[in-house]
Amino acid sequence: MNLLYLTIVIPLLSFLILVCSGRHISKNNIIIIGISTIILLCILTVLVCIDYQANTVPDTSLIYTRYLWEWFTVGDTKIAIALQLDGLSLVFLVIIAFFSLLIYSFSACYLTSSKDIYTFFAYGNLLIASLLLLILADNLFILLVGWEGMGISCYLLIGIYYQKRQVSFSAIKAFIVISIADAFLLLGMFLIHNELNTLNIREIISLANENLAIDSEIIFWITLVLFISVMGKAGLFPLHTSFTESSIAPMPVVTILQSLAFVLSSGYFVLRLSPLFMMSTDVFVIMGVMAGITLIFASCVSLVQNNIKTLVTYINLGQISYIFFAFVIKNWELALYYMISYSVTSALLLLSSAILIKVSNGEQNIYKLGGLCRRYPVLYGTFLLSAASLCAMPWIMSAFYTKGDIIWGLMINDKMGLGTIALIGILLSTLSILRLISTVFHHKQKLTSFTPILPYSYLPLAILAIMSTATFVYLPLPIQGLVPSVDFNTQNQLILQLLLAAVTILSILIAYILFFDTNSEINEIIHTPIGKMLFRLWHNEWCFDQILQIVVIRPYLYLARLIKTDPLSQWNRAINWGARKINFQIASLENSRLRWYMMSIVIGSIIILLLLILI
Known about the structure:
By secondary structure, the protein is mainly alpha-helical.
């Protein structure tokens, strides 16, 4: 564990090498550098796990701190560069290393342009280094550095094709939302330091329990601003722009952002500060409301999207809400299990979509595809497994157990409204993915030429497909004592499981009636007045951009124009004009004649003496 810092240093050095020399390195060498970086990270992770297990005493929680150096001191506050490893950060370290290896391996087969490969691996390494710094930081200031590094990495990855105007705008929009989230995190740090006079995470949790009252006003404001910062990273409504705008990037970028970066950074932050969040009851109410709104918002939008990348992005956005539902019932261990399940399902869906777009010559409109079931049976199978996971296929997929336990927890905690929304979310997401599958694989074939794909590209999908089943659900994780424990009542849970199975079967039947039959009634439904209204509303993403334009952008521009011409600005301009005129007159006296200089000195001295005498 003494080499823990190398998990951050290695991807950071790889980033610097590729950024400085990537344009001059051949494609194969770039792939070797990128893959070798992640392989070294995986080897280090294995060694850290072995060392951690060897030093762990039964029934205790090992916390290892690797002090590197003291960064700076402000008053009584000392900020040190130190890494902290415990069971929670170890779990996230393993997840990041494993998924990074899968995504990088897929990208090496998927990306063809040398420029795309070196920019992806370079910025991807910066993202991984920032994410690892975030989960290993022992104080909030170092965590903020990793948080900011993630924001910069996301901006760079989304804007890989920055020459295109729309891509550039999307990267800027995502960066603005991420920066808003960063500002709230900074505000939360100020509040914490003002109350507790420390930024060390373990000291914050300990001192908060001793010095701050449960449900006090200061606790509410601290947890609220921290939750708003998490909303910007996770993509909860209305700060979902960073998540949705990532869909404009290449598919490996979309995968590493949506399956890894956004969900793990936000989820880890809440889990790490879970004792602090548990001191505020009101913030969980807000958390549940925003998660429910996000689920309905994203699920409805995904129902009517024709673009593959946009469709799967909104499906993933809706699935993130279940993590916050688990937070609402304060079942932190269940939230972590679902986080892993989400990452597997999301990566499987996105990588399958990447291959679909690749073989279709870059075509992303689902209605311009069709009839691919027999041509690509393996790809068809991965999509079916993705759909099975999204619809929580009873007793087969891991999502059935994780989602089922989350919904059961909501219901036994008297949160029937959120539990109902969670069930509706399963139905809508199932309809969305089955609509894609039926249109692309079962309807009449429209494309005549296809791009071949390397067989090795299916290997990461096969691994993810196996992991999405119930085989690996609820594996023991070393997080006991690190997050608050909760008693989970499983009595009569079979009734909920049967209800969940009924919802799954119902959603499959509805999808078959609406989408699999080319002569279905779907067109009649769309062309009804209500259908037309809902289709336009959902297709335009609930008119969110238009509302944002009216509520935020136009008032901002109006105030900017108003401030530009305010009296204070006019007064400043008048002073600057007068200073320039005086300077011009003085400059004209600089004629290199000594008598003029002597005269000015004498006149100035006389004026000063007169002022001293008279005043």
